[in-house]
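Board notes, transcribed. Complex of a protein with S-adenosylmethionine.
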Amino acid sequence: MADHRSFFLDESLHEYVLAHTTPADAVRRSLTRATAALGAQARMQVADDQAALLSALVSAVRPELAIEIGTFTGSSSLAIARALPTGGRLLCCDVSDEWTAIARQHWEDAGVDDRIDLVIGPAINTLRSLPDHTAVDFAFIDADKTGYLAYYEELVPRLSPHGLLAIDNVLWSGKVLDPTADDHDTIALRTLNDRVVADERVEVVMLSIGDGLTLVRRI
Ligand SMILES: C[S@@+](CC[C@H](N)C(=O)[O-])C[C@H]1O[C@@H](n2cnc3c(N)ncnc32)[C@H](O)[C@@H]1O
């Protein structure tokens, strides 16, 4: 079980949330162990409660095409891929062969590798190489924070009418509210959050799960 929790939940409340969420199965537990072996980088992994939410959202949207920006060792992609309807595909974007090798292994173990296309390279290039008419039914952004706004601008015009875009880390451990925080990532996330809520093309809800998760749909 991934042990990273929402920064505003104490340990006991976090345990309570997990105890009342469908538990991780053997493949997910194996993935969490393999990711933990990486050391400090393991904190990038999407936690079990957020993975369960992604599965629930994907089950509701029933995407023909889902896109993930930032795959790492595969937690969110496993959740998305498992919830796809028959024929649905997931395009995963990452720059790391090493980390996504762990993802590939666990996609295979879960029997979902045949519905995933992984492209190694800067995600902005992968998105810009998609045909203009590509309809995206579900997307999840969880990569380099300074790239989020560009990913958002590529994805929103392609969102299908029932499509949903989920954006991770929008609270950035609370740094978005810290007036002394002026690093590039924090500024990028503040800028994105302000842009999204003012964007007349979409409706948006910011959830406080994990490190903050914004859901966007076209109107
Ligand atoms: C926070 S981790 C993603 C966590 C993942 N969603 C999960 O469920 O565990 C961020 C990932 O973004 C990838 N990344 C960083 N810059 C990128 C870029 N320009 N294009 C694509 N992927 C990138 C990193 O290699 C890393 O695997």
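The first strand starts at residue 65 and ends at 69. Residues 68 and 181 are 28 Å apart (CA to CA).
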